[in-house]
Amino acid sequence: MVSAHGQKGAKYTYGAEGGYIKGYDCSGLVWWAYKTHGKTLPRTAQAQYNKSKHISAGSRAIGDLVFIKNSSGSVYHVGIFTGIFGGKAVMTNANTGSYRGYKVVINAPISEYTTGGSTAVYGRY
After folding, report:
1. Domains in the chain, start-ordered, CATH in brackets?
2. Is the separation of the CB atoms in 75 and 27 below 8 Å?
3. What is the pTM of this model?
4. pLDDT of residue 2
């Protein structure tokens, strides 16, 4: 979503849902981006996953949501699928890790978020 790309570099702030200065958490960025396009989503990553139409990796399209699940099946992170670049599936998200900085990043490889038993699953609104 174009609006999410415009927030590149905004800081990661747990529980935040808007504004370059205030920042975003992962689900807050998704919630805000979809809201700017006239869509209503739940506020948390798990709730966004629960309400989305679950799709396969082969069916995903730009703008679909990427959910990261832990080994027990709980969703703890969400981003927006932005395509395949350099042979890697990538997303825009409010990054919670120091490896990319605590900020909104675009075209982050999804594989960076699927270590230690975590998996990526996809949803569509």
Report:
1. 2-124 (3.90.1720.10)
2. no
3. 0.94
4. 61
Least Cα distance to 112 among 84, 76, 88 occurs for 88
Q: Report the alpha-carbon distance of residue 98 to residue 50 in Å, rounded.
A: 28
Which two structure tokens, joined as six digits, stand for 81? 């699928």
Instruction: Report the distance separating Cα 123 and Cα 67, nearest Å.
Output: 8
Tokens for 1? 């979503």
Query: What does the pLDDT look like over 62-100, one tens digit per residue?
Result: 999 999 999 999 999 999 999 999 999 999 999 987 778
